Amino acid sequence: MSDDEVMLEALRHFVHLDESNAAVHCGAVRYSPLTFRLAEALNRRGVNAADAYVRDVIADAGRYEEDKGR
Questions:
Q1: Is residue 70 predicted with pLDDT exceeding 60?
Q2: Could you state, in order of their start, the residue ranges of all structural domains in the chain?
Q3: Residue 1: predicted pLDDT
Q4: CA–CA separation, 45 vs 30, rounded Å?
Q5: Hey, how many other C-beta atoms are within 10 angstroms of the C-beta on 4?
Q6: Do 68 and 30 touch, CB atoms closer than 8 A?
Q7: Predicted pLDDT of residue 27
Q8: How many C-beta atoms surround the C-beta of residue 40 within 10 A?
Q9: 8 Å CB contact between 41 and 11
């Protein structure tokens, strides 16, 4: 696996974790700072065009204050 593939799998894991956390609390998905940083790093590497996970997280950036306590 390439570094991009490893980072993308980590991003997918954290996206699903954030989504499940929102579902348990019956709330809207709010991505964690770690999820945002992984998506941003992949975006800088040019992976965003190939993956919906990266695009979806990047599109959510700035829509709400990040939870810095996680």
A1: no
A2: 3-60
A3: 87
A4: 23
A5: 15
A6: no
A7: 96
A8: 15
A9: no
